[in-house]
Design brief:
eight-stranded parallel beta sheet, alpha/beta, 10 helices, Arginase, Chain A
Length: about 450
């Protein structure tokens, strides 16, 4: 029997406030709904227990700043959410399940390559940690992440922006109208991964027909052309017509159809804040679709009140958006520091606002242009006066980029600059190091 894995982790001990939309009730109502409907008694549903991710798992995708030890006590629920995604991902690649639904919180898709704190309710990026674990341990090479949360998955995009072997697609409410204010068609990837990022900003009011049209006519052909070994759906549910934080008009039935069209190997819960009116029904529809059961009878109790954008009005918008996206050409700034290793280095400024914690991160990214691999990445990041460095040697790095990474790492440890900490992500060898002047070098 082809089984569908299911894992619950409601994170009872983590909340942003008793009345905050990101609290444990987000999953408790779903759990009750699935029990009442008898879904957990279906023979093809296999339940799993949560697992805790290690700091090494995290460092394979993200740098926890200024050092991991300063955050460990606050990361427990985030580590369990990420570890649970890893657990179900391993079950899928081992053939223990056909597909799975990781119903966990806290969410993660706003958490990027460098992590100074919580933003958009996210501290660790569950999907990114999962993806890089599967690549490091199981040799999975080509993975597609389709983010259907109403908010742009800017953190996931940031982590994989320079990776040609990860296709990132985000469908979201237009960033001009919603947090985090990004996710436009010109954001198409770095110099070694151009066109491996696809953003589709949709106008407020887009409903079931609109989403399904975009999937069938843009997303699915792009997935087919990329031919991934694994498809992961960042299954945010705040596109629902009752969600209080956004302005879209998807229904539970519409979500079921999205899942049926995408056929994801794993769906990982992201946002969704209509705790009683939407989440129990949307989660039910998604799970039924994954399990190959009829989801069309799932109906939420409330009726739609917001006006829905007609498909005839949406089609010209999508056609024009596609033309704009295809017309965007790469324009990168070539600049490297005087002590950088040989090669053509691209400089990209990056600024991140942490809305939950209320501060700004300033970043300067440098990418070694390479025809043979994803290229060495060097990131300078600052929070106030604290400065940290991330050096990344990518999966399947060529010998030149590997050596460039080692050279940069050696220079960092002998630098007289006021650097708080340094991180080496050696994804090629699955080895990760943290350094600071007081404690020296530590391998995870």
């Amino acid at each position: 029997m082809k089984r569908t894995g299911l894992l619950f982790f409601p994170a009872f001990d983590w909340s942003l406030g008793d009345t905050h939309p990101e609290r444990e009730e987000r999953l408790l109502y779903t759990q009750e709904q699935l029990f009442e409907e008898g879904i957990l008694d279906l023979p093809q549903i296999k339940q799993f227990s949560p697992r805790v991710a290690t700091i090494k798992n995290v460092l394979g995708a993200q740098a926890i700043l200024p050092t991991p030890g300063e955050h460990t006590d606050n990361l427990d629920p985030h580590l369990i959410a990420a570890g649970s995604a890893i657990l179900l991902g391993e079950a899928q690649v081992k053939g223990e399940i056909k597909n799975g639904f990781v119903l966990v919180r806290p969410p993660g898709h706003h958490s990027g390559a460098t992590v100074w704190g919580n933003r958009g309710f996210c501290s660790l990026n569950n999907e990114a940690i999962l993806v890089n674990h599967l690549r490091a341990r199981f040799g999975v090479k080509r993975i597609a992440i389709v983010d259907t949360d109403v908010h742009h998955g800017d953190g996931t995009q940031d982590i994989f922006y320079h990776d040609p072997n990860v296709l990132f697609i985000s469908l979201h409410q237009d960033g001009r109208t919603l947090y985090p204010g990004s996710g436009f068609v010109h954001e198409k990837g770095g110099p070694n991964a151009w066109d491996q990022t696809l953003n589709i900003p949709l106008p407020p009011g887009t409903g079931d027909e609109g989403y399904h049209y975009v999937l069938e006519n843009w997303v699915l052909p792009r997935l087919q052309a990329f031919a991934p070994e694994l498809i992961i759906n960042s299954a945010g549910q705040d596109n629902h017509f009752t969600d209080p934080l956004a302005s879209m008009n998807l229904s539970a039935d519409g979500y079921g159809r999205i899942t049926e069209l995408l056929q994801p190997d794993l769906a990982v819960l992201e946002g969704g804040y209509s705790i009683e009116g939407a989440l129990p029904y949307v989660n039910l529809a998604i799970l039924l679709a994954l399990a190959g059961e009829d989801y069309h009878h799932v109906r939420e109790p409330q009726k739609q009140k917001r006006p829905t954008l007609a498909l005839d009005a949406l089609k010209p918008y999508i056609q024009e958006l596609k033309k704009q996206q295809q017309a965007v050409k790469p324009t990168f700034t070539v600049r490297k520091k005087s002590d950088f290793p040989d090669g053509k280095w691209i400089s990209i400024p990056h600024s991140v606002y942490y809305d939950t914690d209320g501060f700004q991160e300033s970043r300067q990214d440098y990418i070694r242009e390479c025809r043979n691999c994803a290229g060495t990445v060097y990131i300078e990041t600052r929070r106030y006066t604290q400065k940290s460095i991330l050096v990344r040697i990518p999966f399947q790095a060529c010998s030149s980029c590997e050596q460039a990474g080692y050279d940069l790492w050696e220079q960092l440890q002998h630098s007289k600059d006021d650097i708080k900490s340094g991180f080496l992500q050696n994804q090629l060898q699955d080895r990760y190091y943290v350094w600071n002047r007081k404690e020296g070098l530590r391998e995870f």
